[in-house]
Amino acid sequence: MKALKPLLISGREVLPLIEGGKGVSVTTGVSSGAWAAAGGVGTVSCVNADAFDVFGNIIPQIYRGATRRERHEELVKYGIEGGIAQIKKAYDIASGQGRLHINVLWEMGGAERVLRAVLEKTKGLVHGVTCGAGMPYRLSEIAAEFKVHYHPIVSSARAFNALWKRAYRKYAEWLGSVVYEDPWLAGGHNGLSNSEDPAKPEDPYPRVLALRQQMREFGLGETPIIMAGGVWYLRDWANWIDNPELGPIAFQYGTRPLLTQESPIPEAWKQKLLTLKEGDVLLHRFSPTGFYSSAVKNAFLDELVARSERQIPFAPLPVGELTEALQLAKREVFVAHADRVHALAWMRDGFSEALSTPDQTLIFVTPEKREEIRADQAACMGCLSQCSFSNWADNETNSTGRKADPRSFCIQKTLQEIAHGGDVERNLMFAGHNAYKFASDPFYSNGFVPTVRQLVDRILTGD
User: Fold this and answer.
1) Does residue 455 sit in the same domain as residue 411?
2) Same structural domain for residues 195 and 338?
């Protein structure tokens, strides 16, 4: 195993080991501060981060506004206060070691407002901003304004090319690194394009090499690339280290830090990670963001898969193959003959409620699930810039202009629930596709849960 050399990241030479930012109360000041204290780069998530009361207790994010816009303003306020609180905690724990980054999702509701307010109130505490989930063109301008480095997350050279030519070239001095996130292996939301096959993973080496070649054309040959997604044992990446073809490389860990003593996730979540087998993480497209994402297969995802499979095209009047009348609770629609047979069977099995989608199809759910979907849509607080599930958009009309899609779910609700003790089987549990290695890695034998420093030390051995 080659020894890792310190790398200049966000203005200081540190271990080229990055804690991946994980939103909604998962990458906190405690975990990221500990990672920085161990000599690497800790990343505080500023996606709906938790704030604390005067006694140090987490303040529940409860929404009282009568309208979506009013609740959205509450969400932004929670996000700002939580981000500031977590950064201050991380800074205290880091004690001047390593670097501290913050992570925001460009497609989260109020992203720019939250980012600006947090940076304004934490001057001198934050060294860099990582940002993905969309094309964050304005990231470079904001980072330069507050004199912090920016670290865009991309999944292809083409994406970085667009960002650079449109915006980043104007603020090149503040570009701290480019994070390449493997769209087939990373946990959470990832950047698969419409031209890429989700069932056919591609080797990251040629994709990262293409990114480096693109960066060299822009004079960025010495700007680090951070490899994210699928990183577990560093020995598996030995040919990347000190490789002149790739240039400076750092490695980001998103899934492994979930299982540390400083990790804030509930004990049931940690124990679940220790039981996973290869293939237990699903790359799917149910997220209301419209992006692909990867999460642990459980009852929550099983229900979404089944919900989408109980789906048929329909028309309000006979047309083409849609000529068979199907009587629903309050209306008659026309469907294909075979689909009518399926629909009647689903209705007999208790899936008696038909909900229409933006794609002129019907899905069939139980009355209880229908009420849950409608209640969640009505309670929307605008946590995304655009949400397919509720049809919220952060614009003048607060609407995407499309029908709300019942095939998706309220992502804010489920991520808040699982982060704060909710059922790990009935909530969305993001994880990278290597999460099954918790069960086979001898480091975690007998249920051992390391501290962050112990994990960093272990990583440095190659294991």
Assistant:
1) no
2) no
How many folded domains does the chain comprise? 2
Q: Which domain holds residue 156?
A: 7-274+438-460
pLDDT tens by residue, 8-58:
999 999 999 999 998 888 999 999 999 999 999 999 999 999 999 999 999
Residue 20 sits in the same domain as residue 59: yes
The mean of the pLDDT values for the chain is 95
Provide the 3-class DSSP secondary structure of residue 129: strand
Q: Flag whether pLDDT at 1 surpasses 80.
A: no
Instruction: Decide if 125 contacts 84 (C-beta within 8 A).
Output: no
CA distance linking residue 3 with residue 241, whole number of Å:
9
Do β-strands 188-190 and 292-296 pair in parallel, antiparallel, or remain unpaired?
A: antiparallel
Residue 25's pLDDT is 85
How far is C-alpha 398 from the geometric centre of its chain's CA atoms? 23
Which residue type does 174 have? W
Phi/psi of residue 326, each to 5°?
A: -130, 120
Nearest of 95, 84, 98 to residue 44 by alpha carbon: 84
Residues 6+ apart with CB under 8 A from 11: 99, 127, 149, 176
Q: Are residues 47 and 170 in the same domain?
A: yes
Kindly state whether residues 38 and 179 are assigned to the same domain: yes
pTM value is 0.94
- Could you tell me if 259 and 330 lie in one domain? no
> Which CATH number fits the domain that encloses residue 133?
3.20.20.70
Number of helical (H) and strand (E) elements in the chain, helices listed first:
13, 18
The count of C-alpha atoms lying within 13 angstroms of the C-alpha of 430, restricted to the half-sphere facing its C-beta, is: 32
* 105-139 tens-digit pLDDT: 998 999 999 999 999 999 999 999 999 877 889 99
| 233 and 187 in a common domain | yes
What is the Cα–Cα distance from 183 to 267, expressed in whole angstroms?
Answer: 28
Return the CA Rg of the chain: 23
User: Does some domain include residue 433?
Assistant: no
Q: Say if residues 174 and 144 touch (Cβ distance below 8 Å).
A: yes
Whether residue 243 is found in the same domain as residue 362:
no
